[in-house]
Amino acid sequence: MSTRLSVGDLRANVTGLVLLPEDEGYAEELRTYNLTTVHAPSVVVGAENAADVQAAVKFAAAHDLPVAVLGAGHGSSVPSTGSVLITTRRLSGLAIDEGARTARVEAGVRWGDFIEQAAKVGLAGLNGSSPTVTVVSYTLGGGLGPFGRKHGYAADHVTAVEVVTADGRLRRVTAESEPDLFWALRGGKGNFGVVVAIEFDLFPIRGFYGGGIFFPGELSGKVLHLFREWTADVPEEMSGSVGLLHLPALPFVPEPLRDRLVAHLRITYLGDPAEGERLVAPFRALGEPIIDAVVEMPYSAVAAVHNDPVDPLPLFEHGALLSELPAKAVDEFLRLAGPDAASPLVLAEIRHMGGALARPPAVPNAVGNRDATLYNVFLVAAGGPPDAKALHGYEQTLIDALAPWSTGRRYLNFMFGGDADPRTAALAWSEEAYPRLREIKGRYDPANLFRINHNIPPLR
């Protein structure tokens, strides 16, 4: 049977689009946030429902092709050449049960849309910093957000997962129905199937004290050293980070922040605003800020804490997890990302972890590297393909400089295309969890159909 005829049969069984590279609309269907990732699948299926996903997975299995998934948000950073790629942006179902404080969200829903709907009924999810990331993909990778120190990872609060596994079955997986698969899906991201929807608990968060303070770059050292001391004893209700930003002179960047280094303190405090103001006061005493936007704000405005860009960009990213942050580590960070460095980085961030992020959830999951991690380092550079080697090299130099204080592990949602080697990808999970993940992978996906990702090879 020819591929063309087989695709004809696939089209007959799919409600949505089925596109080959020569078809009109192919390139548009592959649009994504990070412009450095080039997708070139053999077939694209624009799924409109779970049945479309099932048909695509069965087609891929029959033709011995890997399955890739591209959501509506920031998209996969692993190239999908030669795959059957399923786009999930049309899976847009979103239902909130106000009384039960739960939600069911399909794979194409972005956090911005969810936040808008949840805020109307005084509820909140454990969203990330960017409103353009999809709820499902973010959550399956752990989900590290602005309320994490108080409530943990987003994956910790998932109660059910609807997933199409390698055999083409649509399963509703819970802790009671298939406990091993449920454990693996929450933290294993796309390794075990195509998730079409998740259900999770919500929180009665109507507002918080938070936002960002932008300091001039010459205060970066004072801000980061204070942050190091400050995080030693702030309560779990306080989540914070400092990002050293060097933003371009583009229209989406506020004029006072253009083409200069700034230190951006970002905080959320789930407590009395007066106490939050007291906790932030030491930073305000450091010097005159460029912008001080830390105020009482509604949950609907949570994206303003980080002010992440929403338009597609060519980005190179790297990260590390730290077990401690002594003064020497801050000095090394400043040496390579601070005001006296010839740094190409758009962002160099240190994020405070600990609190509920360090504790196991009520229902265990595969989100790894919790207990030894006190800080997360996240680096971003922007540039085209010719810049890749130099930008990656600079990021690696900074990560290497922090090695004495690193756990040696990684956070899955902050791993990117260059981290796709399974030996590197394995750093996203604990040494205890990884063999169990491989065993479960061997049961549910023995042919490694779902390998266009940070792959967990099946145990054979």
Automatic annotation (TrEMBL):
<keyword id="KW-0560">Oxidoreductase</keyword>
<dbReference type="InterPro" id="IPR036318">
    <property type="entry name" value="FAD-bd_PCMH-like_sf"/>
</dbReference>
<dbReference type="Pfam" id="PF08031">
    <property type="entry name" value="BBE"/>
</dbReference>
<dbReference type="InterPro" id="IPR050416">
    <property type="entry name" value="FAD-linked_Oxidoreductase"/>
</dbReference>
<keyword id="KW-0274">FAD</keyword>
<dbReference type="InterPro" id="IPR016167">
    <property type="entry name" value="FAD-bd_PCMH_sub1"/>
</dbReference>
<feature type="domain" description="FAD-binding PCMH-type">
    <location>
        <begin position="37"/>
        <end position="205"/>
    </location>
</feature>
<dbReference type="InterPro" id="IPR012951">
    <property type="entry name" value="BBE"/>
</dbReference>
<dbReference type="InterPro" id="IPR016169">
    <property type="entry name" value="FAD-bd_PCMH_sub2"/>
</dbReference>
<protein>
    <submittedName>
        <fullName>FAD-binding oxidoreductase</fullName>
    </submittedName>
</protein>
<dbReference type="InterPro" id="IPR006094">
    <property type="entry name" value="Oxid_FAD_bind_N"/>
</dbReference>
<dbReference type="Pfam" id="PF01565">
    <property type="entry name" value="FAD_binding_4"/>
</dbReference>
<keyword id="KW-0285">Flavoprotein</keyword>
<comment type="similarity">
    <text>Belongs to the oxygen-dependent FAD-linked oxidoreductase family.</text>
</comment>
<dbReference type="InterPro" id="IPR016166">
    <property type="entry name" value="FAD-bd_PCMH"/>
</dbReference>
